[in-house]
């Protein structure tokens, strides 16, 4: 019932803001077009005081965090979404209506156990930014509670009661996923339940600010001293599950292209470093910021000729196994080298498509999608469109969705949208290919083998004196296993012989019983007609004697 009530609310919001007017009817089947034309909500007029972008933004805001996240992704795709809608959806990145100051202060005091006036020398009641999950207030640490007294900080507070809304939406998504698995031919291939479960894990990780703080600390450690990315410090003594205090930064929002140009930022270098950061996080660290929409990215005001990124809001991060890293890197390199046969073979080897797939057919299908986009700048490429075409191609070959790669695909779309805003002429292939080649050399080359040898050598030396005993024990176990195998073979042979004897005995018993019954019947028949029958009596006696002997 909760799912149906939530679905009814979604439909109500959909009709209230007349989002059906945003649907491109001319691209839909005739039956669906007729259904939408006859829908009762068309009797409601389209709100004339609101633009279509405002209607979509307000609808997503009223439906809650999961829908706001969807709007944030759309806001980075001006190649897919009209400019007027993108402009409105960008407000979802950090300009969602805030909750009351009194609620924020009460939550801070409850989590940290002290009044705000004792924790902070200054605390701004008006939020610096407000998003779907939390909002951020500016503050200054109180000298009595912090060694770094006077430090400017930001206080992040989770929206009260947001868990209930998220859980209802997740339950609805899970119900829809189950229906998709049950009634859709592509349900199992798309793995919707696994995708929803991954999203559940991700979104609940974002609700726990201690997890976000640990993610930020790990990213800071990974890029310690780097010119590419700076992560603000986290103040752990003032961080709890619903409240996080971190260093305040004064960068330029990455979406403020005019301000970046005003300080003579090297935009080409900035875009290239964004790509390098992404690939470094994915392949070097296997720990990547997976919510890189423009509201979470800033650019340092120092050294505009060598611009440095600043990242915040690390509630969503992703990671890959070594196997997925290797397959993904080899796939991308083969893709950059336009070796589509290798791309197809890697998909089969990794189990992403069935082993019965014909490599040359799959390679030809991939080539037809990817070949037109090479040697083009980012301004002329839409990865969103390419991914849609690739998914359509994969469907023909029964490719299963890989839930562990969904976050990576989302992040790649964010990176593309960011690069499109900063420097549309960016050559993504030229920027990414050398990095992947270096990574592959470092991962599998002689230096990597030597590093692995040095890493393992101390353990081997430590276990060296134990090796003879381990070898002797292994040989003894092998010998014992051989003896056990021989004994098992003898037991199996004895069992087979016993079963053969039992089958033979049953045959004898059947023969004796049949003989006895037949003789008895002949003797009874002869006695019934008053004629002595020595033959029947003899046959019956022979059958009885046979049974006794075999028994």
TrEMBL record:
Choose any GO biological process term that the UniProt entry carries and state it: ubiquinone biosynthetic process
Keywords from the UniProt entry: ATP-binding, Cell inner membrane, Cell membrane, Coiled coil, Kinase, Membrane, Nucleotide-binding, Transferase, Transmembrane, Transmembrane helix, Ubiquinone, Ubiquinone biosynthesis
Q: Which residues bind ATP?
A: 128-136, 156
Enzyme class per UniProt: transferase
Catalytic positions are 291
User: Which positions, given as ranges, span the membrane?
Assistant: 534-549
Q: Which CDD domains match?
A: UbiB
Please name one Pfam family that this protein belongs to: ABC1
Domain (ABC1 atypical kinase-like): give its ranges: 91-346
Signal peptide positions (record): none
Write out the coiled-coil annotation as residue ranges: 478-505
| EC number from the UniProt entry | 2.7.-.-
What InterPro entries does the record point to?
ABC1_dom (IPR004147), Kinase-like_dom_sf (IPR011009), UbiB (IPR010232), UbiB_bact (IPR045308), UbiB_kinase (IPR050154)
Its cellular-component GO annotations read:
plasma membrane
User: Where is this protein found?
Assistant: Cell membrane
Keyword Cell membrane among record annotations: yes
Name the pathway it acts in. Cofactor biosynthesis; ubiquinone biosynthesis [regulation]
Q: Name one GO molecular function term.
A: protein kinase activity
Q: How does it sit in the membrane?
A: Single-pass membrane protein
Instruction: Identify the PANTHER family for this entry.
Output: CHAPERONE-ACTIVITY OF BC1 COMPLEX CABC1 -RELATED, PROTEIN ACTIVITY OF BC1 COMPLEX KINASE 7, CHLOROPLASTIC
Q: Which family does it belong to?
A: Belongs to the protein kinase superfamily. ADCK protein kinase family.
- Function (record text): Is probably a protein kinase regulator of UbiI activity which is involved in aerobic coenzyme Q (ubiquinone) biosynthesis.
Recorded hits in NCBIfam families, A to Z, give: PRK04750.1, UbiB
What is this protein's name? Probable protein kinase UbiB
Q: Which gene encodes it?
A: ubiB
């Amino acid at each position: 019932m909760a799912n149906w009530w939530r679905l009814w609310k979604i439909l109500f919001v959909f009709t209230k803001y007349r989002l059906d007017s945003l649907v491109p009817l001319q691209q839909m089947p005739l039956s669906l077009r007729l259904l939408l034309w006859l829908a009762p909500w068309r009797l409601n007029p389209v709100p004339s005081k609101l633009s279509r972008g405002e209607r979509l933004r307000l609808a997503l805001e009223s439906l809650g965090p999961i829908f706001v996240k969807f709007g944030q992704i759309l806001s980075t795709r001006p190649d897919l979404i009209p400019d007027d809608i993108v402009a409105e959806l960008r407000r979802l990145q950090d300009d969602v209506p805030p909750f009351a100051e009194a609620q924020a202060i009460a939550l801070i005091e409850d989590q940290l156990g002290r009044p705000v006036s004792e924790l902070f020398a200054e605390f701004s009641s008006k939020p610096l930014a407000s998003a779907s999950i939390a909002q951020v207030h500016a503050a200054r640490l109180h000298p009595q509670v912090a060694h770094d007294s006077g430090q400017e900080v930001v206080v992040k507070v989770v929206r009260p009661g947001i868990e209930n809304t998220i859980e209802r939406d997740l339950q609805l998504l899970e119900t829809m996923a189950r229906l998709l698995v049950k009634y859709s031919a592509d349900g199992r291939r798309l793995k919707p339940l696994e995708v929803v479960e991954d999203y559940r894990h991700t979104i609940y990780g974002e609700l726990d600010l201690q997890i976000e703080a640990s993610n930020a600390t790990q990213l800071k450690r990974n890029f310690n001293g780097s010119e590419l990315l700076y992560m603000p410090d986290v103040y752990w003594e003032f961080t709890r599950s619903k409240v996080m205090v971190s260093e305040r930064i004064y960068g330029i929002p990455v979406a403020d292209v005019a301000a970046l140009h005003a300080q003579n930022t090297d935009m080409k270098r900035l875009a290239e470093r964004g790509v390098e950061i992404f690939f470094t996080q994915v392949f070097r660290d296997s720990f990547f910021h997976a919510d890189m929409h423009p509201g979470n990215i800033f650019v340092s005001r120092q050294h505009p000729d060598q611009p440095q990124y600043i990242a915040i809001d690390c509630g969503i991060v992703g990671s890959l196994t070594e196997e997925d890293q290797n397959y993904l890197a080899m796939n991308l390199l083969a893709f950059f080298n336009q070796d589509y046969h290798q791309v197809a073979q890697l998909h089969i080897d990794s189990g992403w498509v069935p082993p019965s797939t014909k490599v040359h057919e799959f390679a030809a299908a991939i080539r037809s999608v990817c070949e037109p986009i090479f040697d083009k700048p980012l301004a002329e490429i839409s990865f969103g469109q390419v991914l849609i075409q690739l998914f359509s191609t994969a469907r023909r070959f029964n490719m299963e969705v890989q839930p562990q790669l969904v976050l990576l695909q989302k992040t790649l779309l964010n990176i593309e949208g960011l690069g499109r805003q900063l420097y549309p002429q960016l050559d993504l292939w030229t920027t990414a290919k050398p990095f992947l080649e270096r990574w592959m050399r470092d991962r599998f080359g002689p230096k990597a083998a030597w590093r692995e040898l040095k890493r393992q050598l101390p353990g081997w030396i430590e276990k060296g004196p134990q090796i003879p005993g381990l070898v002797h024990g292994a040989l003894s176990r092998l010998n014992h296993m051989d003896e056990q195998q021989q004994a098992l073979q003898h037991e199996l042979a004895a069992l087979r012989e016993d079963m053969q004897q039992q089958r033979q005995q049953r045959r004898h018993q059947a023969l004796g019983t049949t003989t006895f019954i037949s003789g008895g019947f002949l003797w009874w028949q002869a006695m019934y007609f008053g004629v002595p029958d020595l033959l029947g009596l003899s046959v019956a006696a022979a059958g009885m004697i046979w049974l006794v002997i075999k028994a």
